[in-house]
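Recall from the previous chapter that SMILES is a line notation for molecules. Here it describes manganese (II) ion.
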Amino acid sequence: MTASQSAPRAEMPPAPDALGQVRTLFISDVHLGTPDCQAALLAKLLRRVRPERLYLVGDIVDLLAMRKRAVLDKDQQALVARVLRLARSGCEVIYIPGNHDAAFRRLCGLKLHNVSVERRAIHTTGSGRRLLVSHGDEFDTHVRIAPWLLKLGDGMHGFILSLNRWCNRARGIFGLPYWSLASALKRRSGTAQRYVAQFEEAAMRQARLEGLDGYVGGHIHQAGFRVEEGVLYCNDGDWVEHCTALAEDAEGALHLIDWQGQILETAPRHLMPRPAPAATPDAVTPEMAGA
Ligand SMILES: [Mn+2]
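With both inputs in hand, we obtain:
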């Protein structure tokens, strides 16, 4: 077998539907400082997809994990260098600390060169949609699941991730592609799915309350879109298990992309009109409907 035949997929030219220059890129839950951080894959994405503006939407550096062991491996250091290089070359970087890098919240309001640290942001898309951007841990209190269960989930998550690591090391030896054990388990758990649904609803409620068109966040490591009552919910995923980001193209459309910049899913372009505040003649009011 020649070297070119055995070349990994990463060296192949990007597919025609992969994104290149984008207006905005949203990334969260990188968890730098942990062995599960997929820094090399994220660095590959940043070589391929060039954003004008980059939102780092929380849990970028896992300061909680680094309390035990403060080490960034080579790939992780290279990723930090790449992000700083991006900022120096004119990309506007907005760092929104999450619950694993909450200590950085003390730096909110600070702006160093092209990097600003903010608690949350309002992003206006190219098509004029206004989106609330936050990590999302603030919605944990809206989730009606016992706090001890959330805590246990966090511990369990760490355990499952280490199983995941071993499982994929073994799969790698046999030439099998990456497969997420953790997300397979989560898809089968009713409690996990209930948590995700309640989280999404709380985020959309907040965006609606602030008169915005939608929400962008991370935190729950479950990427995807949802639209309810004209409010768009976007989750950019994570760089521990799924390796996805949210990208806004030049026209203002939002896409979920993988580490190669390939589009996995596109957000609904036309949101349903929000219910009008004043009743129209043929509108059914809650009283009329007997609610
Ligand atoms: Mn988080």
